[in-house]
Amino acid sequence: MPTTSSKTETPSIWPQLRALFVAFHLLAITLDASPSPASGMNRLAWKEPTVQQEFKTWSGVLGVDQTEFETFLWDLAQGFMGIRKTVMAPFSPYLHATGSDQAWQMFVAPHRYPTRMQLQVNGDPTSADGFRTVFEERSEVFTWEAQRFGSERLRASIFRWGWPNYQDAWKRACKVFARELLAENPDSSAVRCRMFKQRSPSPAEVEDGTMDTGKWVFVLIEKREKAP
Amino acid sequence: MKLWSRWVQLLDRRESAFPLALVRLAASLIVILHISRIWEKGIYLWVWADDDYGGLRNLNGGFLERFGGLTPENVQMVMAMTIVAALAMFLGIGTRIACVATALGYGYLADINGHAGGSYDELVKNTLYLLVLSGCGRALSLDERLRPTDGMTTAWPRWLMIFQLVLMYWMTALQKVSSSWIPVAESDALFYILQQTTWQRFPLPLENLATIYPLTRLATFGVWTWEQSAPLLLLAYYFRETRDRPGRLRTLFNRYDFRSIYLLFGLGMHLGIEALMEVGPFSFASLTLYLACFHPEEWASLRQRLFVRGSGR
Questions:
Q1: CA distances from B193 to A109, B99, B277 (A)
Q2: Which of A29, A72, A193, B148 could form a disulfide with A174 if both were Cys (CB 3.0 to 4.6 A apart)?
Q3: Total structural domains within chain A
């Protein structure tokens, strides 16, 4: 059986249209895939130490002032996004309708100050602050709903909740966790959701044991609603 | 006009549908397994159901709003329909319609919650769309068994898959602008990424990670360079197509089969990602497109070798 062949008939309108369509598709996906700061266009996120560290390194490499460099990049990115929106206007409906969107911002930079999510319920007399941990990200001990939290879709959300620009979503999620935890723990009256933020150590810091001590951030307390 | 005519003529080229059928099998399997797991573990209740029904976010259900919104039952219905469609796609029953239904179902689910997805969603959606455009049902399908054809289809959807793969690798590389990736500083991106609890497959003791720090630097440089050089894969295909023409670079690319070397490195990288990190079905979705990177004649030759070896036993 032949595995390749080429037709030599006189081109009709269909091959012309097909050629036009394939050219359009290639142009649309290439333009859409082109580098864009879209997901990073948030000044709150730019204040995060991981991002600030990048600005520091790059302004050092380029020999420019860090604040001026940051302002320049913000203005440049805003201008670029405006042009991009105009250029993409004829292509966007096609890309959205066919599921051909191109978003390839994958691990653009390592998160140097990652967070680890923790959920607690109160009512533990043996604990100093009365709270007992029920879930901690990737822990083998605190495993409430660990299977759900361990899925890639939840982990993508958890990663986002560790950034200041996703705090509305984090508050909403904490309310849901609290509702479920309080239903399962009738003796508890409050749930604490929080993130432990710690700078990732360098190899030298690992070797001499001088690691960042870290701190709790984005701490939320959800209390049981009193019966009317 | 001569260039346009050549373009039109090129897209008329036909070949065996076998590689596209392999992509179809792999892509449908990814959809079936992924959505089944989300269903079985109850993950959809948090990520795809609206907050009125126990979900973590206030979500827009699109067309489902007319039928009560993103209730757990409605989401289950879409998941069930997507799984059934993907199953039909896998078996090759009403293949084109099954591909359309799978693409619509998966696309709908993946777009419900923008906070709970990853690049694997984009890749799977892109692959499904290209399968819709292709004649992937003309091989390894019940359709083909019931209504046999010559098993041939146009080659351009397979070429678009190769282009999609190149575009993904290259554009992700161009956006790796961190000083940890670009070899202007330490090339320590992977050392820090592997410390991120969120993406770890299992906890990596820091002491062990620090011990292999030079290796992580080498891997960082290797991955970044490899991704940046993705357009060379297109050049390799061009050189294969024009192998009769002269040129040292062409000869070099063809003598050592640059394409296979490039894809072998990619396979190693994806296996490494799978071993150390949990990033959803991204690696499998990427490797699915690798199946399109080989010409039907190469697949035929492989099948023949396997068949001859198998029947010789």
A1: 8, 36, 9
A2: A193
A3: 2
Select the residue from B169, B171, B297 to test the A interface by mutation, using most A Cβ atoms within 10 A: B171
Final residue belonging to a domain, choices A98, A126, A152: A98
Chain A residues 61-100 with a CB less than 8 Å from chain B: 61, 98-100
Q: Is residue A154 part of a domain?
A: yes
Q: How far is A128 from chain B (nearest CA, A)?
A: 27
CA atoms within 13 A on the CB side of B168: 25
User: Within this chain, do residues A219 and A124 fall inside the same structural domain, yes or no?
Assistant: yes
For residue A150, name the pLDDT band (cuts at 50, 70, 90).
very high
Domain, as residue range, for A211: 115-223
- What radius of gyration, in Å, describes the C-alpha atoms of chain B? 22
pLDDT of residue A10: 53
Domain ranges of chain B: 16-154, 167-295
**Cross-strand partners of B279:** B281
Residue A132: what are its φ and ψ, rounded to 5°?
A: -120, 130
Domain-located, residue A104: no
> What is the Cα–Cα distance from A42 to A51, expressed in whole angstroms?
11
Which chain A residues are closer than 8 Å to B200 by Cβ?
138
Looking at the structure, tell me whether residues A205 and A120 fall in a common domain: yes
Question: What does the pLDDT look like over A79-122, one tens digit per residue?
Answer: 989 999 999 999 999 999 999 999 898 888 899 999 999 999 99
**Mean pLDDT of the residues in chain B:** 95
CA-nearest residue of chain B to A169?
B57
